[in-house]
Amino acid sequence: MTHFADRLHAAIQAKGAPVCAGLDPRPDWIPRSFFDAAFARHGRTPAAVREAVRAFCLEVLDLVAPFVPAIKPQVAFFEALGPEGLSDFAAICRRGRELGLLVIADVKRGDIGSTAEAYAQSLWGSTQVAGVTIEGCGADAATVNPYLGEDGVRPFFARAREHGGGIYVLARTSNPGSAEFQQLELARGGAVVDEVARKISTWGAESVGTCGYSDVGAVVGATHPEAALRLRALMPRTPFLVPGWGAQGGDAAAVKACFDAKGGGALVNSSRGVMHAYASGPLKSYGEARWKEAVAQAARTFRDEIARLSVPAA
Amino acid sequence: MTHFADRLHAAIQAKGAPVCAGLDPRPDWIPRSFFDAAFARHGRTPAAVREAVRAFCLEVLDLVAPFVPAIKPQVAFFEALGPEGLSDFAAICRRGRELGLLVIADVKRGDIGSTAEAYAQSLWGSTQVAGVTIEGCGADAATVNPYLGEDGVRPFFARAREHGGGIYVLARTSNPGSAEFQQLELARGGAVVDEVARKISTWGAESVGTCGYSDVGAVVGATHPEAALRLRALMPRTPFLVPGWGAQGGDAAAVKACFDAKGGGALVNSSRGVMHAYASGPLKSYGEARWKEAVAQAARTFRDEIARLSVPAA
Hints:
Two copies of one chain form a homodimer. By secondary structure, chain A is an alpha/beta fold. Chain A has helices at 4-15, 32-42, 46-64, 75-79, 85-98, 113-123, 150-162, 179-182, 192-204, 225-234, 252-258, 272-275, 291-309; strands at residues 19-23, 70-73, 102-109, 126-129, 132-135, 141-144, 166-172, 216-220, 240-242, 266-270. The first copy, chain A, is 45% helix and 16% strand. In chain A, the strands form two sheets. In chain A, strands 1-2-3-6-7-8-9-10 form an eight-stranded parallel beta barrel, surrounded by eight helices. In chain A, α3 (46-64) runs parallel beside α5.
């Protein structure tokens, strides 16, 4: 089975830049027309709200598909619409794959072994339960929290591998308070995140694609240039998933630090900067009437900016 | 609004022991009759599998309700049944509350601020979206992963407080590999988990009930007696949620270490040892035919064992 790392590598080549469109649908920023249409069909019901959000996300997928090799739907924004929202999340994942996009389920799951296995079933492939086939959400990769240690991570990795998938383990997250525990200094030298990085690198050595990168990646925020540089050195074959570009204040220096000497090894994510481009940021003047143009334009600009940053220094 | 800590304290007094029944439904261990009934109604479909699991869990709730003040449904086992499984998880939470049980959603969520807020919406209370009320799953408390730092934890805590709820932050988990990152020794002395504990204690000081315990709890596995003793000292007012009793090998010494000098401050969880008592463990001889007796008996024994362990030393 083709490695996730190789599929991602090929998809990046095909689209021309290592970029990922995050899908964090914020209802306040979704064009009003989606709600009007759904309310007209179903009344002012929770089901109508979910339909509006889903319809919007599906249109966003069509708009960004020409520019990005991967999408990263964030499950929390679907769970926030009620438990039925998880079905919409799965529908978005499926549609992403139909469009040839790699789907990174941003779920940040993590639990003890047998529970981690249950989560992994929900993400990759299908499972026989009492003789009935239960389909997972059809992700290619998922984000995983390392706090529980290796036996909390490995079930995700094992299941992902079986299905040609991958995982991205949280290393240095993009949020302002990420240093609090991640950068605690250790008695043996270095910081907590360095130990996490070493383990990610070790786990990943078991599954390296022909492109030279592993199926076990690391989440490294675009908001900490020095940390990124250090983590790049600690994890030479580890693909980085780099959130925080745009709205969260990620900058070019931090993103450049995530790429290796060949200009590879990182996938940069932008969420609201692309999908909600008409609601905030430089394309706000497009407004709801021209929201599709704004999203397509933002995806194109994002792709071109990151393509430039990922060119190796001469 | 009454504090979560006080509601839990009163519920423990009413039931006679600080015990929690975990709901981690493993389909292989659910009496066959549930599947037969569901298949007869719906055919061999994923919906029938979910109905069987839901029906079983609802019966377990009725059986354990006389003996336990709280339940802890584990969302992973519901997500593993397909995205629609999250609706069954919510149904279990609702039914638990109807039975007067405190509901601890074992979701181990954690993410950056705005995403953590979305998760928190899915757990406590209801949210207005485009003028429509979206109900959360109706938990009283939830488990939260601290790896992202305070700004990844606080949105959960803030929302929980608004609704008289609480959170349990992972400190030392019950799994075999939990020491890997949690016990890394720090340059300043102590281990990573000690820093997590200090923060839990600090956050919790903002919200202490009249019972003397906080609404911010800590997950401390029943599998590490020395760690439990140390964490008890570091977090004197923090209520512990103590998984790992029974099937995971938790022992009396570790559980005793989780209680404070007054015999309070801990809620001990048993999952498969109660809900799947007829399928493994000392009551296996009951078998499927007498599964209800086995579950009720296991819940009673569990309550009595933990009641004895929580009596303060004379």
